[in-house]
Structure prediction request, 167 residues.
Amino acid sequence: MLRAQRSFAGSLAGGIVGIVLGGCSVAQMPAWLQVKESLKFESDPLGAEVRTTDGQTCRTPCSLTVPLTAQSANFILDGYLPQTVEVQVHQSAERLSDNSFPPPDFEPNPVAATLQAIEKPPERGKPTERTNSAVKIFRKRPPPSAVTSAPPQPALVIHVAPPAASQ
Prediction:
């Protein structure tokens, strides 16, 4: 009976600690404690959709106010390969005139991406143009010039006379 009471008490204490500490995660911090910074986005071509790690989106050129943490920006545009750019937080090592450090900022800022067009597959029914020099096309070739056919010879005509009639 004593073991059962200790085990229950230990479970209860562990559960309470878990609930208390679970409420202290970064995601549940009050908004005024989270530092946010403006991050600019550019793409070539313009009009790509940008999605940040925290789920915010915009179309280039644009800027978003995002948490000041290392993250990635995903650029998506129809007809182009998607691209991901990593964004880091940079803290300068140079001190200001009051001997303090400047606030951290994003690097790079602006975040730029040059998107590559997707090659379209050939349409069905149309032959594919091959540029590989190793592909050989086989054609019927004329016979070699040394083997020419002889000029036609006149046919040998034999006239056979009908047998003479007996008289």
